[in-house]
Every structure is written in C-alpha cells, then in structure tokens.
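Memo to structure team: turn this sequence into structure tokens by end of day. - J.P.
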Amino acid sequence: MTLEILTPEKKLYSGEATSVTLPGVDGTFQLLNRHAPIISALGAGIVKYKVGNETKTLTISGGFAECLKNKVIVLVEGAK
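Reply from structure team:
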C-alpha cells in the first residue's frame, strides 16, 4: 500500500509500506494491505510502519489518518 505521513511543515514519508500501526484516540490499531476504508483521529503516541524488512517509528502528538483505495494518509500535528 502507499503511505504518506505529513506535518503542516513538510512531508515526512512517501512510499510503499506493508503495514502501519497508529495510536488512535481509543487505542492502537493496524492497517494492512487492502484495508477497508477508514478515517480516524490519532492521539499522542508512536506510529510504526514497515518498509520491506525494516520497521520505522515516529513519535507524534496527534492528528488524523485516512485509508482509502489502498492509500494511507497520516496527517500529524508534530513528529519526532
């Protein structure tokens, strides 16, 4: 699936990913290839995404995520 992680200032990641784990406001959830459409608010926590055999992480302060047509867009307020 295609993944984009964006802040108001810049694009943090754009490319392919095999899974994305996100800190939803009601708990952590994972998106995999061909996931059903979803929009979710995100709380503060850790975003994990798998690119090939490598797992990458970002600490976010909140935001929103959308999954539609095998593309995940994560809009975050701030990330480290």
